[in-house]
Amino acid sequence: MSLLVFFILHLIPGDPAQAILFQVGATAEDVASMRERLGLGDPLWEQYFRYLGGLFQGDLGTSFLYKQPVSEKVIGLLPHTLLLGGGALGLALLIGIPAGITAALFRDRFLDKLVTGIAVTGVAFPAFWLGLLLTKYFALELGWFPSLGTGSLKALVLPIVSLGWPLSAILTRLLRESLTEVRRSPYLISARSRGYSGIRILFRHSLRSAIGPVVSMIGLQFGGVIAGAVAIEVIFGRPGVGSYLVESMTAKDIPAVQGIILTIGVVYLVTNLLVDLGRAGLEPRVRDEWSSR
Amino acid sequence: MNRDEAEGRVNGSFGSGGRGSSRGLVPLVLSPFAWMARFFQHQGLMRSLMMLVLVAVVICAVFAELIAPFSPTEIGYDILRSPNRKYLLGTDQLGRDVMSRVIFGARPALLTAGASVLAGVLLGVTVGLVAGYGGRWVGAVVMRAVDVMLALPGLVMAMVVVVILGNGALSIVLAIALAQVPVFARMVYGETLSVKRRAFIDAARVVGCSNPRIIGVHILPNIASQAAVLATAALGWSILVAATLNFLGFGFSPPDASWGVDLQFGRQWIYQAWWLSVMPGVAIALTIMASNLLGDLVADYAGGGYRSDGRRLRVDGVI
pTM (2 decimals)? Predict the structure, then answer.
């Protein structure tokens, strides 16, 4: 329990500092026009502390563009982005884990080369380009899925695929490496010599310890997924935090940009906290490492 | 791949393996063809192809004027022609030759990626060295700031920087460089800490080396290969981020050719003219693949890209 608290305290100091950063950057940027529009003549630090005060009450300021509280807007949009990101993550796991296992089991043989070859392309394709190609063939030519909007679940398919595909490629490569490493370790040889079946060895002995790096990579990559969602949301015309970010950046809507960035940072930290907890649940080693701190 | 394999591969391809018969007869430097054959023999088809792609992209970037069949910015009457014998990759909505634009687009792509990685490495290494070599609280403060930067996805941070600095090639370079600083700083910080503890640093201090000399002569060479590995691995990422930024409308300057901007315009014509959005995308994807494989190659060559604690150093990333 004390550990958890430590961890949260360890991570949180980031946010106020982040706010300072962007407060400074923003006001230096178009101080004059902002003053005229909003009468922000107060010293910078006063503004900052007011902002910080509001932050603790869940107030992110008022959007210049929409004249409505940023927090309302962001909270309204966050589910859309999380749905997209979560779906992409799910798809990545769904593809990446079986593909990674296949590649490791058939290492250096044809199946492995096929899988890793596809994975190499997956890492190199920009998500937004993949999105465009998918729109072209599956939406415009075949008409299976809508190319824009949020109307139905069907509209989620293409965005999720284009966002999840690169991630699945990364997970595949990672799982291949870590599973291969585990399969060479002495305790697996001993398990094999005791005559356990291949499936049992795979699921009970090797996968459990090989999945650790994959889990931490999910945490690291979740920020990337959110960033990728920015482009994907723009392409597919979906409402979401990402497209709102682009919109407010183009419009120089400083409070909105600040609020969105803070939100993304918080989401990222929370995800990583969850991922670390999940890892501790999976691996006794990590738990020991923690309690010895 | 484990360490032995990686080292075996390095020795096999560049060291004194002696499998190739041309060794000893003709110096490798003087016979690029023998070198290419050896490369192919040891690295396989995929890597060889990707190296060819990389060389081709670099040649396109350097000699764009000589290679491109048309001017990339000249507006013509043949608009939205599909790929044909005159316009190999078709023409766009203003009648410009897509192939020429793709060829000219290699220049800003490589320049941006190269410059931003260079700047990112310089800044990141400096920050990491200062944090690692400076006292305990200097390190703590600097690394906390780095952690804050890491909490933001790189692309989002680059977007913020571009918005603050305004549009233009330079601000894109700076944005991508800044987004990379925390990654480099973190790596260098860790390496510096571990190098600093070793005996030869104490020895250097005992014989009276100044701090700058210890950093420059004793620490820097020890982290240089790791930094080089990370830098090449970051090339592909930079190209991707630059393309994404351009695509989203940050920091572009038409009418100059740029893959990301062309994709953005091509997107509006996707129904009528698929080649507008496919061709620049192919160029981006191929270049990223090639530079990723270059990163792998450098990692193999520079001692496997392992951190000093034996774990494999890896920089994978969707934006």
Answer: 0.76
